[in-house]
Amino acid sequence: MNNDMLAYYTSHSPFTDPGEYAPLLDALPKDLPGIVRAIQGLIIPPYQYVLQLRNLQLKDIEDAAFGIRSMERFLAKLMSIRNAPLSKPRPPRLRLGVNCRNFATLLVAILRQKGIAARERVGFEGYLGGAIHYEHRITEYWDGRRDQWRRADAYVDPLLQASRKMTLDPLNIASPDHFRVASEVWQGARQATLDPSRFGDSDIDVGLPPIRYALLHDFDALNKLEVRGDDAWSHLIEKPEAELTAEDLRFLDMVARLTKDADANFDSLLALHRDSDYGQEVRAAARQHLAL
Predict the structure, then answer these.
(1) Are 122 and 221 in contact (CB under 8 A)?
(2) Among residues 136, 121, 130, 132, which one has the least CA distance to residue 207?
(3) Distance of alpha carbon 286 from alpha carbon 274, whole angstroms
(4) What gap in Å lies between CA 232 and CA 253, rounded to an integer?
(5) Beta strands 205-206 and 199-202, pairing class
(6) Whole-angstrom Cα distance, residue 90 to residue 226?
(7) pLDDT digits (tens, 9 = 90+) for 88-125
């Protein structure tokens, strides 16, 4: 395995750097199950608003954290609600309301802080129970004992597993039926081996546009730009399908080829993001938004 690549994914990005709150992450458990349990005691996903906070709306959960990009600001928000060790579970009312991106990036941040290579991946899940495979963000981490990347989804907690009667191990998501990175779906849709109408961001937002969106965000994440799900920082993300040019499609197909085998194409995918118009747009926007 490329040691430079592992070192790259072990170091923090501007999005995952905990800043002055690094000691809080250092104090968390070292084992993956313990880390994930701690995460699930700090933040709360949308489905639990109904299951655990039956009479509350999202606005009633104090300072819901969907909009926070910086890990340092995210941890500051957690501590402003309850100044206590992060390993101590909080009641649902004292957890931050978040989405899958927050679960993925928090796990990435903790693992990186503990010297473990980790990266966010963007793709489409097959285990949350819907007819549509929804866009979803999970964590890949380097298992040094097996010399391989493994996939974990901190979003899936025991309550969700029980309510959906899931049998998968959320700390070892290995089957493509459970999770496909966006490049696989893009290529499958382009080659007519996958039905694009079965993949989307919601029941009414399906097909190639949300697949393209996920593809570009996975490209960003592999370049350690763990953007929010609603960050459309390039015209290529929101461009109407009918207006895509042959050059646009060539670029998207290249992104899919490189990100599908990110390890073998590590240097090339970094160079393409750094040198392309798309990557430069995203990097400029990231600098602007993280400086706010």
Answers:
(1) yes
(2) 132
(3) 13
(4) 19
(5) antiparallel
(6) 26
(7) 999 887 888 888 999 999 999 999 999 999 999 999 99
Using an 8 Å Cβ cutoff, are 273 and 220 in contact?
yes
In this structure, what token pair is assigned to residue 120? 């966010």
CB atoms < 10 A from the CB of 237, how many?
19
Question: Which of these, 107, 29, 78, 65, lies nearest to 229 by C-alpha position?
Answer: 65
pLDDT, tens digit (0-9, with 9 covering 90-100), for 42-76: 998 866 655 555 555 545 454 456 678 999 999 99
Q: How far apart are CA 96 and CA 204, in angstroms?
A: 27
Q: Where are the alpha helices (DSSP H) in the chain?
A: 3-10, 22-26, 32-40, 47-51, 71-81, 100-113, 158-164, 182-190, 208-222, 235-238, 246-260, 266-275, 277-290
All residues at 6 or more sequence positions from 238 whose CB lies less than 8 Å from its CB, including other chains: 232
Q: Is the pTM of this model over 0.85?
A: yes
Which helix or strand (DSSP H or E) is residue 203 part of?
A: none
pLDDT tens digit sequence for 162-208: 888 888 999 999 998 899 999 999 999 999 999 999 999 988 999 99
- Residue 25: Cβ within 10 Å count: 21
Count Cβ atoms below 10 Å from residue 240 Cβ, excluding itself. Answer: 7
Among 115, 165, 144, 153, CA closest to 11: 115
CB 71 within 8 A of CB 106: yes
Give Dmax over CA atoms of the chain in angstroms. 54
- pLDDT score at 56: 52
